[in-house]
């Protein structure tokens, strides 16, 4: 083969690959940068952070978990709604946490636990919770 032909094919392949990668990254940024986070939870604005308390539960399989939790409301009005449902929120948190195993507490799946708790707490509060914070997290 001619040397110029080989160089032309190499440059065409390189440019085609580069354009494909840049196009893919650009499309992801455009179409997915403002997409809802995991399971449809959309962070709207910074809301009040309300401490819920400390929880110590037995996990399925004999392990235990001790954690302190705070919730972030959707807006300033949500603090009153969350505070009014304090007993229901604590009950729901205890129920969800005690249904989990030690494997469910591992760092790589902890985000799934957060989103499950957010969904459960939104059922109780009428969609007033946008985020959950584990202030401490000890399991054994």
Automatic annotation (TrEMBL):
Its main location: membrane. It is found in: Cell membrane. InterPro entries: FliL. Keywords: Cell membrane, Cell projection, Chemotaxis, Cilium, Flagellar rotation, Flagellum, Membrane, Transmembrane, Transmembrane helix. GO terms for biological process: bacterial-type flagellum-dependent swarming motility; chemotaxis. This is Flagellar protein FliL. PANTHER family: FLAGELLAR PROTEIN FLIL. It is a single-pass membrane protein. The lineage of its organism: Bacteria, Bacillati, Bacillota, Clostridia, Eubacteriales. Belongs to the FliL family. It holds the Pfam family FliL. Controls the rotational direction of flagella during chemotaxis. It comes from Desulfitobacterium dehalogenans. It comes from the Bacteria. One of its GO terms (cellular component) is plasma membrane.
């Amino acid at each position: 083969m001619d040397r110029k032909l080989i160089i032309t094919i190499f440059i065409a392949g390189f440019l085609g690959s580069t354009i494909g990668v840049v196009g893919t990254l650009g499309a992801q940024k455009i179409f997915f940068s403002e997409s809802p986070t995991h399971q449809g939870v959309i962070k709207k604005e910074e809301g009040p952070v309300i401490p819920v308390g400390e929880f110590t539960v037995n996990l399925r399989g004999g392990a235990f978990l001790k954690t302190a939790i705070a919730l972030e409301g959707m807006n300033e009005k949500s603090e009153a709604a969350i505070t009014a449902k304090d007993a229901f929120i604590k009950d729901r948190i205890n129920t969800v946490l005690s249904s989990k195993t030690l494997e469910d507490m591992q760092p790589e799946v902890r985000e799934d636990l957060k989103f499950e708790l957010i969904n459960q707490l939104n059922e109780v509060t009428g969609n007033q919770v946008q985020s959950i914070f584990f202030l401490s997290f000890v399991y054994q």
